[in-house]
C-alpha cells in the first residue's frame, strides 16, 4: 500500500505543481492576461513585458499600472479563440459597484499564449490601426 500511496502522490505532484506555480497559467489566454495585469498592478514591468508578443511595454497605452492600490478587482474569461488568436475579456470592478469590461488580444507562440499589445491597442483605438496601415503604404 505505501507504494500505491507514493505513486498517487507523485502523480498529483506532477499534475498540480505546474498549475499552482506562478507564471505557469500562460498556457491559457485568460491566464496570460491575468498574469499580465497582476504584474502591472505589482509594478513588475519586466515580468509583464515577458508575457507579451512584443516583449516591451514602452509604447503601450494600457492603464493597468495606474490601478495599483485603487482596490480594483478583476477576473478574465476567454471570449473567442481561433487557432493562434484569442480575445479575452477582463471584468474590472471597484468602488460601489463600478465596473468596466476591457478586451485584450492574445497570440499563441508555441505552447504559450502572450498578450499582443499591438492588436490590443488597435482593438481599443481603431483609428490607430488605420494610421498604421496608411504609414505602411
Give a written overview of the molecule.
This protein is of the alpha+beta class. Helices cover 42% and strands 26% of the residues. The chain has 5 helices and 4 strands, in the order αααββββαα. The protein has helices spanning 2-20, 29-41, 45-50, 117-124, 126-136; strands at residues 73-82, 85-94, 98-109, 112-115. A 4-stranded antiparallel sheet has the order 1-2-3-4, with helices on both faces. Strand 3 and strand 4 (112-115) form a beta hairpin. Helix 4 crosses helix 5 (126-136). The longest helix has 19 residues, at 2-20. The relative contact order is 0.14. Mean pLDDT is 81; it is low at 1-24.
Count of alpha/pi helices: 5
Structural class: alpha+beta
What string gives the helices and strands in order? HHHEEEEHH
**Strand segment count:** 4
Strand order of the largest sheet: 1-2-3-4
Chain-averaged pLDDT = 81
Poorly predicted runs = 1-24
Hey, roughly how much beta strand do the residues contain? 25-35%
Amino acid at each position: 500500500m505505501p507504494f500505491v500511496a507514493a505513486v498517487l502522490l507523485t502523480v498529483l505532484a506532477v499534475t498540480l505543481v505546474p498549475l499552482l506555480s506562478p507564471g505557469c497559467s500562460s498556457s491559457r489566454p485568460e491566464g496570460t492576461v491575468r498574469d499580465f495585469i497582476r504584474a502591472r498592478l505589482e509594478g513588475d514591468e519586466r515580468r509583464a513585458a515577458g508575457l507579451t508578443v512584443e516583449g516591451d511595454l514602452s509604447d503601450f497605452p494600457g492603464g493597468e499600472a495606474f490601478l495599483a492600490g485603487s482596490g480594483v478587482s478583476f477576473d478574465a474569461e476567454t471570449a473567442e479563440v481561433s487557432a493562434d488568436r484569442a480575445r479575452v475579456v477582463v471584468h474590472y470592478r471597484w468602488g460601489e459597484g463600478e465596473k468596466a469590461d476591457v478586451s485584450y488580444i492574445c497570440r499563441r507562440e508555441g505552447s504559450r499564449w502572450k498578450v499582443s499589445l499591438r492588436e490590443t491597442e488597435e482593438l481599443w483605438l481603431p483609428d490607430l490601426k488605420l494610421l498604421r496601415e496608411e504609414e505602411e503604404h
